[in-house]
Design goal:
Helices cover about 40% and strands about 20% of the residues. The chain is of the alpha+beta class. Helix 1 packs across helix 4, helix 2 runs antiparallel to helix 4 and helix 7 crosses helix 9. The longest helix is centred in the middle third of the chain and has 34 residues. The C terminus is likely disordered. InterPro entries: Cas12f1-like_TNB, Transposase. In the C-terminal section; belongs to the transposase 35 family. Pfam families: Cas12f1-like_TNB, OrfB_IS605.
Length: about 400
Amino acid sequence: MLPGVGETVRYTYRLRPGATAEAALLAEWGRCRWLWNEAVHQQRSGCRPTFCKLSKLLTEARARSSWLGDGSQVAQQQTLRTYALALQHSFKVKGRGRPRVKRRKDSLPSLEYTTRGFSIRDRRLRLPGGVSIPVVWSRELPSDPTSVRIYQDTLGHWYASFVVRREFTPAPEAEGAIGVDWGVTTTATTTDGAYDLPYHGRRKRCAAELARAHRRMARRRRTKGAPPSNGYLRAKRQAAKVAKKAARQNTHDARVWAKKVVDNHTTIAVEDFKPTFLAKSRMARRAADAAIGAAKRELVDRGLRAGRKVVLVPPGYTTMTCSQCGTRAKHRLGLGVRVFRCDTCGYTACRDRNAARTILATAERGRAGADDVRHAITSFRDGGRVRSEPKIPRLPAAGKR
């Protein structure tokens, strides 16, 4: 992004709604959730609803039902727009599931408003229906917001996320490139050991406290159909508080590390690793504690905002390929083997460090992208003899480590 050009970002603030305002937000969320579920049922019945069709049905439903007509039309339209985009994305992306029904007991409230549906007056957030909510202004907005998302977390806290446009601040001058390989023992191993992201074990440290809260919930759980007791709700809140504390610590660690990497490198080669399959393995708990997905997302987003060259390299054969000569090992390396040894050139290095250097070498060749990696064998004549570069296998879009 060029200096002087604005960028679109989100500014999030804590809300302090009273009992009346919170009841109005929950009532509005009930209407939007009902519309979402109705759209899901239409899709399951064989119809592929678009936003235009859903908007016409919404107009008819608001005319028939006074309960639906009492709500904000802006929030309801934004709910249907979000559903239509999610459905369209699910058809384009292979393996992406269709939108599912949102149940009241396991879905958190989330409302979206455009400029027609909200305003900020006297440093308070004004919503349709005369709802006025105080905002904890931790920092000033750089410009007038174009939309706002109001949501509630697992602790019951309300937040407002404004979409604003701010002036772009150029990143500091830097030189050099870095490759990033993801793992479980070390969350991120780079070509330079000074920029590694170690495994902190945030959730592991609070596992005992979280287990006590879960046991307390199990003891105080009532029979099915009976309303939960106050003791059960307190135990549930304590469990959510412990889990969110660990998640916030992981997010903070990822942001500090990503800023350090982005500020000191112009080219960042990132392994396009998707840790979803780890959820079905014996490393599921440790992989969730490492928060690989959050760290990768923070690094990529911050690098793009800073104008750095961010290259996503598929993980196929990166661990088995020598970073010095480009020769691929004939046998797959087990997870217990932490040292890579090349039988061709005799290069020896840490398994993850060699993979990071291979990822960087792939990105520097200019043949890496977010979708696929191709390696061509180029030949050239030197002194009457035909010489070729070291043969490097084609890396598939989704390979095994």
